[in-house]
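User: Can you recover a sequence for this backbone? Please restate the input before giving your answer.

Assistant: Of course. Working from this structure:
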């Protein structure tokens, strides 16, 4: 389990609301949970892009690697 760290930073309330509205699974969750979910999704997308940039991977292999990274990030977040 990942260690939680309290971070204080100003964020646009509309940005958080839009993130919550884009994903119905985020309804009723705290701002911290919404932000953590958004960061997890971002990291998964980055892992996918990095896997594609490495070259000779098939689309299926790149997607598998990205999904593993996303799963690991989600596991760390819980």
């Amino acid at each position: 389990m990942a260690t939680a760290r309290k971070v204080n930073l100003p964020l646009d309330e509309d940005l958080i609301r839009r993130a919550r509205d884009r994903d119905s699974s985020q309804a009723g969750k705290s701002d911290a949970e919404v932000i953590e979910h958004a960061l997890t999704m971002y990291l998964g997308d980055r892992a996918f892009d990095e896997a594609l940039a490495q070259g000779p991977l098939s689309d299926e292999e790149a997607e598998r690697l990205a999904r593993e990274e996303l799963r690991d990030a989600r596991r760390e977040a819980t």
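That completes the design. The longest helix spans residues 31-53.
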